[in-house]
Amino acid sequence: MRQIVTAALAAGLLVAGAAQAQTTLRITLQLPIKSHLGQNLLQFEEEVEKASGGDIQIEIYPSAQLYKDKEVPQAVSSGAIEMGVASLTRFAGTIPAVDVFYVPFLLDSAEKVKKATSPGSPIRGPIDEAVLATGARILWWQPYGNTILLSKKEPLHGPGDVEGKKVRVFGKTLGKWVEVVGGKPVLTSGSEQFLAYQRGVVDIGMTGITTVKSRKLNEVMDAVTRVPIAAIEFVVVINEKVWQGLSDEEREIISKAAANAEKAINARIVEIEEDAAKYAVESGMTVYDPTPEEMAAWREASQPMFELFSKEAGELGTRLVEEAKKL
Questions:
Q1: For residues 142 and 85, is the Cβ–Cβ distance under 8 A?
Q2: Is residue 99 within 8 Å of residue 322, measured between CB atoms?
């Protein structure tokens, strides 16, 4: 009887040891899992769990179940959660220079954005380092596409259509831009957009075109105006203490899966945006591309933003703007 009990105890200890050996990483995401960022996380999850033989488990919590977008940087850096996805601009409170991506018309082509966000670039490299100093390590960047402006009834034909209107923004620099062109910025989390538009809390929306489908914004707004004010970038971050606590093998598995996830989403972002525009049209929305004259007016009205950003973003911000101009 004693031998049976001892054997059972030993088996129990083995099971407990195996359970303790398993690493679980939770990821908070403000967008629905069906969004392209959510699907990108699923690819990462599948690769990590397969490569680790199930020893690393990834748990994804979409639709801001745990944290709103603005809460993610602090939640991850403090260790309240292991991983998170946040709009890059959410780090602007401590690192104003990250908003170089939101200086209007600075990175105004897909090629420029691709170069700026490539690993180790003169723009991405310093940003990765600055975020790491907050206690969160960037694993990979997720492109969300160019900004669009949403409106009711008619599309927007120039800065004059923004004057005096309340505009949903998701960052400080974009809020400054709205003020420069005569509007009134209203900082609104991504998960709160639908109700903000439905209830008239804001008159004009600012987001990425893929959000129209994932958040059903076609039900509360009528028109999309494709003004490429800025490139929206998200980053997937992991708590640095958690990262350092992983084994070399675990870090290698995660790094490889992160690199593959980044390559996959970058390869598809243009197609993703095109599909989103098609969906918007099919759902009854107007998708409008400004004329050359209208685009020139948007650019002209945005010129003061270069000086404003340089003043507020410090030496690093000024350096990143100069690097961006070289592109």
A1: yes
A2: no
CATH code for the domain in which residue 233 is found: 3.40.190.170
CB half-sphere exposure, 36, CA atoms < 13 A: 28
How far is CA 82 from each of CA 78, 200, 274, 295, rounded to the nearest angstrom? 9, 36, 33, 42
- Check: CB of residue 205 under 8 Å from CB of residue 168: yes
Angle, vertex CA 9, rays to CA 6 and CA 10, nearest 5: 85
Per residue in 27-84, pLDDT tens? 999 999 999 999 999 999 999 999 999 999 999 999 999 999 899 999 999 999 999 9
Number of Cβ within a 10 Å radius of residue 307:
9
Domain limits for position 43: 2-326
- Give the chain's domain count: 1
**For position 110, what pLDDT does the model report?**
86
